[in-house]
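Issue: copy button drops trailing tokens. Both records pasted manually instead:
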Amino acid sequence: MVGERRLASAEFTRARRRTETGGFHGEHLDSGFPEFSFLCTIWQVLTLAADIDVLARFGRALADPIRCRILLALREAPAYPSELADTLGISRTRLSNHLACLRDCGLVDTVADGRRTRYELADARLAHALDDLRTAVVAVHTDRTCPDAAEQGCC
């Protein structure tokens, strides 16, 4: 978060200098409204910060294998917590904590269904993103970085 603020602050300073000096590499910004150019640049910086936040939340959600399994299960179809717990073979308490994390990350939504609550992906594009990530070719180094890699079968 602090790094993001520093990045945004540095971008803001560079944008202000560009506006004051007339643009990139001496090009002249002659819109007649220097405030408009400056505000557009600020908007771009804020959008960059928002994009970084979205990717960080997505990374946080994918950082845990159980959350990955939940997302993959919800990619197939919406489900109730009891069904998810049974399918994944984990306790409902543990599942509830992971679902709360996924809700906080903005990746899943709840839908009231009578007295029950159904979970589903927040956006249909997430299913495509998960498929793309799952099928992407990832170069893995031959050295194992995790201390438990041999036992866990990871890395």
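Record 2 (pasted manually too):
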Amino acid sequence: MAAEPESTSSRAERSEAERSGEGSSKLPLGGFTEDPPDLSSSPAAPLGMTAAAVVRLEDVHKIYHTGEVEVHAVRGVSLEIGKGEFVAFMGSSGSGKSTLMNILGCLDRPSRGHYLLDGVDVSGLGRDQLADIRNGKLGFVFQSFNLLARTSARENVELPLLYGQHRLTSAELAARADKVLAAVGLSGREDHHPSQLSGGQQQRVAIARALINEPEVVLADEPTGNLDSRTSVEIMGIFQELNDRGITIIMVTHEPDIASYARRNIVMRDGLVQYDSPVKQRLSAQEQARKLNEQVEVETPA
């Protein structure tokens, strides 16, 4: 699911485009420009304490058949993710992290074992039932944003509501979308199309879309893979603030520095969990943004 990392020159070009698109080279010290909506009343679970498990995997296997060859992508993974955790999955290509992410996102089903989401075993549910689960309990953020090019930021964010069981008027849809867009710092850009937004702004729209149904879990697949390093810090700031407000976040990344913004790292290898531990030296997006701003001030002549 993940793309190859960008070259240094490409990242530099993208960084310049991001800064010009945002109108300033300085990063905000947090993702929100105003008080966000109360997306969850539950505080983030402190490390070292047991939280109610929103995700539980019990001896999960995933086997793909290619002709007569069996590929064991996931080999008996058992783990729990508590409500309010921020977990980053890492691993090389073929480690099984993307396959596991597909199972967690109800995009695929395990060949054996059980997956309990918010206490409900979703392992054997049908396609329509899984679609309802995805729309109601899960929010997705992708590396490539996956925005509809010919629709506004507001309309992109409204989309999950149109596929759900909500019966909202056009005015109610717009009000909910605008509120979430404001929460991720895009107030005033609701009518902009993706081509009128920078990469960082497009990813903010994608995050807003993921939050519109107030999901139990936000799944982020390489959310900074198409962004320069400065904008990546900005996006991690949004995730950290959402997590501080109780949102459970599960992220896949191949970048160790990005994984350090999470509270817990899980490293996979050959379809198994090789390492699972709290992050000992967690990065603060606010602090990293402050350092980058100071660096810009030093480098910019008076």
